[in-house]
Amino acid sequence: MKLYPIHAGYFMADGGALFGVVPKVLWSKHYPSDENNLCKGAMRCLLVVDGDRKILIDAGAGDKYNEKYKKNNGLHGDETLVGSLKAAGFHPDEITDMFFTHLHWDHCGGAVQFGEDGKTPELVFKNATHWVAESQWEKAWNPNIRDGNAYFSTDLETLRDSGKMRFIKEEGDLFPGFHYFVVDGHTPGQLIPVVDYKGRKVVFTADLVPVTANIPVGWLAGYDLFPVTTMEEKEKFMKIALDEDWVLFFEHDAYNECAELEAGKKGAVLKRTFQLEEL
């Protein structure tokens, strides 16, 4: 098995959104922001290659947005999903499985593109089976007033009509060495993959732990629909990650790719950060 970080660009998030009720005087010591209180976020996907199987975890935002939307969300960067895949030596048609942690725009948008006519949406990974939690699929089609802007009908309709969607109902294994569990605090049915790699377990933290500064159980993003649930899920997650010495792989941390934990006075704390290739 081989793992490849795949970079799909960057966005900007308000510090208050990224850290919720945690005061800036605290979080600013651990994660930088600009003069407008905006924090740089990565869209870092992960390609898992195991024999003929090539599983891509999340797809970034893609480029289907108008200039106003790009400006409001600070979408920038020269790296693209397909470009990063090709730089790693892979073509989109080789991807066998597209695994969505959830269907928010910055996690699934890159899996749908406009065709040659510039207006007809189509799958980027035409040969891939696309996986998502059934509860997240249902949520995406029935958002509430708070999370409606996180989902795009173009993405959902294209995925629905593709015939390539498969739904996950509970914790399990996609294949040997690729386990996933379900968390519901950020959004119902977020899948968190845990991959066996070089004798370690590498966990793709998605929006359960967006950046290293979110490691403390109470340091939640304001995006979470059910913050108390997220705290309970994080507390359980951090205990297991600490006990089993998991490697955390961050999707949104623009400055740190991976991290290890150690025990602190109030639970798990950051031990060190490093690149995945250092394992």
From TrEMBL:
Protein name as annotated: MBL fold metallo-hydrolase
Molecular functions (GO terms): hydrolase activity; metal ion binding
InterPro entries in the record: MBL_superfamily_lactonases, Metallo-B-lactamas, RibonucZ/Hydroxyglut_hydro
SMART domains: Lactamase_B (SM00849)
Annotated family: Belongs to the metallo-beta-lactamase superfamily.
Keywords of the record: Hydrolase, Metal-binding, Zinc
Domain (Metallo-beta-lactamase): residue spans on this chain: 42-252
Domain of life: Bacteria
